[in-house]
Automatic annotation (TrEMBL):
SUPFAM superfamilies: YutG-like. Lipid phosphatase which dephosphorylates phosphatidylglycerophosphate (PGP) to phosphatidylglycerol (PG). InterPro entries: PgpA (IPR026037), PgpA-like_sf (IPR036681), YutG/PgpA (IPR007686). It is found in: Cell inner membrane. Its cofactor is Mg(2+). This is Phosphatidylglycerophosphatase A. Pathway: Phospholipid metabolism; phosphatidylglycerol biosynthesis; phosphatidylglycerol from CDP-diacylglycerol: step 2/2. Its EC number is 3.1.3.27. It comes from the Bacteria. The chain crosses the membrane at residues 50-70, 91-114, 134-155. It comes from Marinicella sediminis.
Amino acid sequence: MNNPMTTRQVALQTPAGLLAFGFGSGLAPKAPGTFGTLAAIPLYLLLTPLNHWLYLAVVVLAFVLGIYLCDKASRDLGVHDHGGIVWDEFVGLWLTLWLVPVTWEWVLAGFVLFRFFDIIKPFPIKWLDQHVGGGFGIMIDDVIAGLYAWLLLMLTMRSI
């Protein structure tokens, strides 16, 4: 696109942008990924009544949808993986919290662990972030961060 839309236009005036920017949470001037992850919590609470497999199916569908949403928003902005694109944080947190008790303590632990892995980017997250393009590239590093956080939560639950 020769004349990219402004961030605000993409985030608030296009359906793909509205979702990719986490209903506007990605417009936070500082730490948009953290604000996007926080914005994912109310939707997570709406998903919790689903049985475990249906919950996981919704997360997988959100991942697939996210590939399109994040790619479209990136193309509209003319910037790959703009910091305000936070749909990947939504999906990463939802994956982190799969099968976790729905209490504020577990949600907080999942939030902290997911943000930790998303920020620190241990192997292969950093490599994927740097070498995989498009919507899939935007989504996959957060999914792996979510898997790392989920594994730690599962190990913690088993040890209690």
